[in-house]
Amino acid sequence: MVDLLGRWGFLKEAEEFIDKIEVEPNAMIWANLLGACRIHGDEKRGQRAAKKLIELEPRNSSSYVLLSNLYAASGLWDEARSLRRTMMQKDIQKMPGCSWIVVGQITNLFVAGDKSHPSCDEISLALKHLTALIKDNTFHDFLG
Q1: 44-79, pLDDT tens digit by residue?
Q2: CA angle (112, 139, 105) in 5-degree steps
Q3: What beta strand segments (E) does the chain contain?
Q4: Engineered SS bond to 38: which of 1, 26, 70, 137, CB 3.0-4.6 Å?
């Protein structure tokens, strides 16, 4: 319910819902509110959600990153930098993003920033070429 209200921008109602539910709100509930606050630019409510989230999961980097992104989106660069410094002081590190793709019957895992693949240079060159085609609006010619 918090996610639904938050996606539609009903942040006050989402927070009121959290306050009224009979169960103790878990980290996922607070993370949903924090994410919605970032999307809709509600910095004060986002701070409250982040505080609750950090109380529940003090070593989870995602709450710090979400709050930092909220600060940055609101133009609060000093607060964003301060929060990143806090993460460094507490040795809380952001986990790199990862994706996977299945080609044939083989699952390939990709981690952001990983350059260990033996064909990394060729892959990067192909991606740069495709990006240039897309920017030049000639990608449809490439497809035939």
Answers
A1: 999 999 999 999 999 988 888 888 888 888 898 999
A2: 50
A3: 98-103, 106-111
A4: 70
Distance of alpha carbon 88 from alpha carbon 40, whole angstroms: 27
For the stretch 80-133, pLDDT in tens is: 999 999 999 999 988 777 888 788 888 877 777 778 778 888 888 888 988 888
| CATH 1.25.40.10 boundaries in the chain | 2-89
Short-list 52, 23, 21, 44, CA closest to 32: 52
CATH number of 2-89: 1.25.40.10
Helix (H, G, I), strand (E, B) or coil at 38: helix
CA distance 61 to 49: 14
* Contact (CB, 8 A) for 70 and 46: yes
Contacts 24+ apart (CB under 8 A), 13-18: 15/45, 15/48, 15/49
